[in-house]
Amino acid sequence: MAGNATKAPILRVATKRGIATQTAAKRSQNVPRSTEAKTAVLSNKLVVSSVDNGSPVSTVSVLFRAGSRYEQADSLGTTHVLRIAAGLTTKNSTQFAIMRNLQQIGATLSCQTDRETIAYTLQSTSDSLETGLKFLGDVASKQVFKPWEISDNIPRLKYELAGLSPYALLLDLLHRAAYRTGLGNSLFCPDYLVGSHSTESLQHYVQSRFTTNRAAVVGVGVDHGDLLCFAQNLDLESGAGPSDSAAKYSGGDVRQDTADSLAHVAVAVEGASLKNTKEALAFAVLQYALGVGPYVKWGSSASPLTRAVGSAVGNNPFAVTAFNASYTDSGLFGFVASSPGNVAGTVVDAAVKQLRSGTLSSTDVAHGRAQLKAAILYNQESNSTLAEEIGTQAVLLGSVLSGPAIISAVNSVTDAEVNAAASKVKSGKLSVAGVGNLTHVPYSDELK
Known about the structure:
Layout: E1 2-4, H1 21-30, E2 38-41, E3 47-51, E4 57-64, H2 78-85, H3 95-104, E5 108-113, E6 118-125, H4 129-141, H5 147-152, H6 154-162, H7 166-179, H8 199-209, E7 215-220, H9 224-232, E8 252-257, E9 262-270, H10 277-290, H11 304-313, E10 319-326, E11 331-340, H12 344-355, H13 362-379, H14 383-397, H15 403-411, H16 415-427, E12 431-436
Parallel strand pairs: 1-5, 3-7, 8-12
Antiparallel strand pairs: 2-3, 4-6, 4-7, 5-6, 9-11, 9-12, 10-11
Helix pairs in contact: 10-13, 10-16, 11-12, 13-15
Keywords: Mitochondrion, Transit peptide
GO cellular component, one term: membrane
Subcellular location: Mitochondrion
C-alpha cells in the first residue's frame, strides 16, 4: 500500500488513467460535471460529503480525527506505524487478497497522515468502485495488526526515517518549537520507539480514536446515495472517544546541526485556526501576498519576501517562501528559507523584518488574493486534492464549503483584514527551527 507522511501540497497533479476512457464516455452522457458538494450527517454523527463531477476515476476517502497531535508520551509514533500498516491483513481479507484484488481492478489504496487526521483513500475507475470499496472498508475499520506483520514492516519504518528530507525534518522541528506537545508531536516515529508498538497498543489507539464522531467519508466522482450506503455499513464504534487537549502555543527554538553546507530555517508565529474562517482566509491571502516562490521554473519572484531578502544578500543564492498552516484550534504563519550557511543569518534577519513589517500595499494584497483564488480553482481540477480539501473540512469542521463558496469568501477578504493579520504577525512570539549549517543563524530572542 502507498503511504504519505503528510497531505499533498496545494498544487498536485491529477492522476490520469487511460483505461478509464470507455467509462468516461458512459458517465459524460448521464452525469453533468459539478463542483458542488453534497453533505449529510448520519444519525451516528458520521459526516458524509461528495462531489459527483462525472469523473471516470472515483476517489473515496475515510478520514479520522486521529493524527499525531493525539498521541500521548507512551504512544508517540503510533500514527506513523498505522500508516505503514495500511493494507495489512484485516478481519475479512489477507494482505495478499487486498493487493491482488485491487490490482485486478486497476485501483490504488493509500494512507496519509498529518497532525490532525488519518485518511485512507481509494482511487478506482467508477465501474469497479463497488469492488474497491469492500477493501477500503476493511483497511479503514477492520484492522487486526498481526504481530509478525508489524514486525515485518519495521525495516520499512527505519528506511523512511533514514530518508527524511531536510524540509520534512525542518517543519517537524518548527512545530515542536511552537507547541512542544500535541501539535508539536512529530509525524514520524522516534528512533528510540521503533519496534515498540504492539498489537494491543495499536488496537487501543484505533478503538478509541476511530469512532463515528471523529470520522468522515468523502468522495469525488461518486454518487452521493452510493457513498451514503457505504458509510452506513462501515464497522465503526459510535461516540466521541477521549477528550482532546487544546493546542497551546509556546514559541522557542529547536535546532539540529548537520554536516550540510546549507542552512534550512523556518520562522513562525501563531496564526489562525480553521474555526475562524474569516481570519484563516486573511492569513491565506497574506501568505500569497508575501510570496510562495517563483511561478516560472528557474525564475525569480517579485514578491515582497523575495525582494527583501534579495536586496540584503546580493548575488548570494537563496530560496524563501511564506508558510501558513491552520489547524482546528491554532495555526502557524511565517516563512521557510534555505541558503549557504555563511549568509543564513542575513537571510533570516531580512525575512523576519519583512514578515514583521505589519502592513502590505493594496497592490500586494490584490496579488495575493488573485494567486490564492488560482490555487483553489486549480485544486478543483484534481480529484485527489479535491477529496483532500473536502475531507479536511468534513472531518475537522463537520461541514464543507464548495469551491465557488470559498472563492466568494476570498473575494470578501478586505485589505484591512489582511493587514490586521500582518499586525498579529508583527506582535507574535517567534518560533525558530533550523537544520544544517546553523553557525550564523540567530536564535528567536535575537530577532526583532
